[in-house]
Structure formats: C-alpha cells, structure tokens
Amino acid sequence: MLLTILRVSIFVFSLYGGSRFFFEQIQISRLFSWITHILTIIIVLYIMAYFDLLELTVYLLFGLSTGYGIYSLIRRLYLKEFEKTNLTTVNLWMFFYCILIGLTLWGTYLEHYDNFSHWALIVKFLFTENSLPDATHEIISYNSYPMGTSLYLYYAVKIAGFSDNVMLLGHFSFIASAIYAMFAVIRDRSRVMIIFLMGLGITLFNIYNISIRMNNLLVDFVLPVLALAGISMVFSTRHQPLKMSILVFLTTAVLCLVKSSGMIFAVIVWCYYLYQIIKIHVVQRKDWKILGISLLTVVLSLTPILYWNVYVKANFPVTKHEVSLTTYQTIFNEKDNTVIQEILDKIINYFFDMGQLSTQGLILFNVILLISFLVIRFYLKRPNSLLKMLVLGNFIYIVYYLGIVFMFLFSMPVEEAVNLAGIERYTSSMIIFILGLANFSLAREVDYSFYEQNVLARNYRSYKSLASKQLYQISSILLSFGSLLLLISEVNGMRYLNTQFNESIPAQIMQATGHNFELNNDKYLVVTTDVENVENYYTGFAAMYFLYSTEVVAREAFLMDLDEFRDYLQEFDKIVILEEHMTFDLMMDQLIGNHFGVGIYEVSDIIEQSL
After folding, report:
1. pLDDT at residue number 474
2. Whole-prediction pTM
3. Cα separation values, 471 from 288, 447, 467, 478, Å
4. CB within 8 A of 380, min separation 6: which ones?
C-alpha cells in the first residue's frame, strides 16, 4: 500500500513538472498547462508507438517531466515565488473536488461491461506487451478503436503500477485537468460567486454522467469535458493565433484518437476555432496568412486518426467497428424495413420520453438559459448572448441526435440497434457538453451584469448598494452549497457501488484466479450460476480480462451424461469455479467422487482422478 501511494505521488509530481514546463517555458496558462501536458504525452506516445518505442518513451517523458518539476520547485523555493495569486479560489475548489473524488476512487474497483471488453483490456495489453496490437493478438477484439486515453493510462500504470485504483485515478486526472481548463473562460477570477457558479455547473454534470460515472474507463465523459476545455482554450488564446493553433491541434487530434465519435466534438472545436480566426485575424486585422495556418492545423489534427485507420487496415484483415462505407452498407443491409422502422420509432420515443435523463437535461438547458436571458434582458435591462447560446445548443444537440440515428442504422448490429444499446451514454455526452456551454455563457453574462465593469477596480466596495452586496454573498453561499451537495451525491453513489462489488462477477473471478499478466492461449471453462451474465457475454469478457486469454468459455448449465461431461471437460486446459454450482458439483461427484470449491483447477488432474 505504501509503495503504491509513493508511486502514485511520483506520477502526480511528474504531471506537475510537465505542467510547470508548459507554464514557464511555453507561456501556457496555468489553467490549461496540465491538460496540455497530458495531451502532449498522448501524441508523443502515439507517434513513438509506430517505432516500437513505447516503454522507452514513457520513461523518457517521465524523467524529463519529473526533472523539470524538481528544478522548478527548487527555483521557486529559492526565489520565494510561492506568492498568492488571483487563482486561489479556483485552485481551492479544484483541490477539494479532486481530493473528494480521488480518495473515493482510491478504494474503487472497475465497473461496467465495456471495461473488460476493451478499455481496461487494452491498457493491460499495452502494459505487458509495450507495443500496439496487430492481427496476432486476438485478445483485442475491438481492433479498430484508436488508442487515445489508453496511451495516457499506459503512462500512468507504467509509473504508478498496474491496478484498478491507478487506472481510475489516471483516468480522473485526465478529466480533472480538462475541467480545470474550463475555468479559463471566467473574466474575473477574484469573484467567488462566478467560480462557484462554474463549480455548480461542473458538479451538475454528475447527474447526466450517471450511466458513465468515474468508476470505469469509458470515454463518454472524457469527450465532452475535453471538447469544453478546447473551447475554453480557443476563447482564452483568441488573440494569440499560433498558441491557439497548437492547442487546437493537441485537443482535436486527441479527441479523434479517443473514439470515432470524438470526431463530432472535434468538428465543434474546429468550427469555433475557425470562427475566431476569421473574426479577429482575417476580418479585423486583414491577416489572411493565418487562415492558411488554421486550415493546416485542422488537416494536421486529422493526420493521427487517418494514419491509425491505415495501420488498422494493414494489420487487421477483419476489423470490428471499422469506419468505412463498405462496413456501414453491409450492416445497414442486414436490417429490413420493419427493423428500420422499429429502430426509428424507439429512438423518437426515447427523444420525447420525459423520464429519460437526456430529455430532462435538454429541457433544463433551455429553461436555465431562457430564464437567465429574460432576467438579464428585462430586469437588469442589459442585452446578452444567452438566447443565441440557447439556439446554438439546441442546434448542436439535434444534429448530434441525428448522428446517433445514423449510427444505430448504419454501424450497429441488428440486436444492439433494436435495443438502443448505449444510447443513454451517447446522449448524456452531448447533454454534458451543451450544459457546459451554458455554464460558460452564464459565467460571462453574470460577470458583465456586475455594477463595476472594470475588473482591476473591483474590491469589497464594488457594489451598487448594500442590498446587492448581500444578494451576491447569499448567492455565493447557495452556489457553493449546491456544488458541494452534488459532489457529495456523486461520491456517495460510487461508495454505494463499492459496497456491491463483492457480489459481482469481477469480484468472483478475482477471488478465484487473481490477475494473470502473461498473455496465453490456455483454454478455460468458467463455471457460474449467473445465467444472465453468461448470455450477455459479461462473464466471458471479464474472465478474459483477468485470465488474459482469448480461449475462455463461461457456462452455467451442465445437465449431460457422464461420458459427455468427461469429453466436454477435456476440451479445456483449466476450470475456473466462481461459486457453488449444483449440477456441476453433481457431475463432478459422479466423475471423481468429489467436487471442488471456488478456485482454478487443471483439467488434466481431474481426468487423471477419473480413470
């Protein structure tokens, strides 16, 4: 335990060192120096992976970051640079946010089906093999998925050690760094009320992240918060085209590498980036050269994912979830008119179902912005941009929802499409994104509604009246209380799930087998009484992850004659028993006059006893 704490601390310090480098040497804002460092790690590892230099690059990046962190720390101590800054309130809020969730994740195990079918599995593969997968590595079934966050988690587990806690904390550090960058849109960071308003909006994300949460490695929450960080960085550097272009390249290149659906969020960031380029540097300053640089930035941002697609086609004869017109046409042709109509009806009903969180989130988005617009416009008598954001947010969500419709029709197998598999996660991602945009707009417009507009002239007397000062103080308290309440709710939700873990399939497998880190082709039979998780392949995928073998069969029914049972067992090398199983124990009693408890057993020993 102490060794793990030490290694995690060293990992965090390496992130600190990298962030200080970008802040001090590249003049990147403190607020997005952390996410810039993380994005750089992903891009560098992605490039070096093609040269089979993953492990060496990790240690090189770690050494450079840690070395600079030590240098920066000593220099700041020597020069006594640890003075107070106007970011204190933001830093305190982020510190409290990270401590609460980080300590919870420290005692949390991985949850969710998809972790074991890909997200945790690919990190484990990178950790043990130190190379990209190819056709010889059959254990990676989702072979067309780009590396994205997996490369960063690979960096984390190489430094801090492989465990659920390290992967979850590494994943959260990515999310927290993106959230930290979002505060850059605030005009006056000395106003506590604005910071707590932003904090409330961020903790509100947890409500619509309920199907994703932070106790897994799914990327459906990463995509919107990284895109929001990208929007924030573009806004903050809109008068610095070169710096803005570099940040956009890093953000959108990684968005595309996280998942194919990340392209949608990347397009939004590109559009806002090009809007700022045209608005400021082309129209106002007549600088047409920067337009060429911006278009080159977009092209370069696409290069990593395009090359990944080339790599996949060259190394995997058959690819799962491949992005190609041929694949889409094949999947679509599997659906007849009846199936297509059923899918469309279900998607439309889902959109208008008031019981769905995404529908409630869309309504909340519209209500917040509409009421805020009316109050500021007619009560405070000040024009504002909230109505424009309301229209833009609805437009983005509808276009995104149409994209979901096409995804279910063209890229999902019939059974998954009819059951609307994963639709709550997909819609929640965009709800989080547009709520983030609303949060940005509100933070700016509330700031512009203050009595004193000169930020430098603001102090404790900068209020129109004593009543307005009291309103400001009460609002700050309520906003801080609201964000704290939502944060505690999320933490309690994860802690409750932790109490249920010992009854889960992953817990049973860990108890029976532990973690195997040697890739193998041994044939395993997993014995369980859980019919549902056998039929939906959850048990098989989870066992494959822990046993680290592609030859895993999970079964719950063993009603057969004795010879058939013996022959069936001989098809496997090992048997994994997760719990007491009546019919399996009965067959074992008949075969060898004995049965086994929870654990893993050699089939050869069992057959030898039966002779």
Report:
1. 86
2. 0.93
3. 48, 14, 6, 10
4. 449
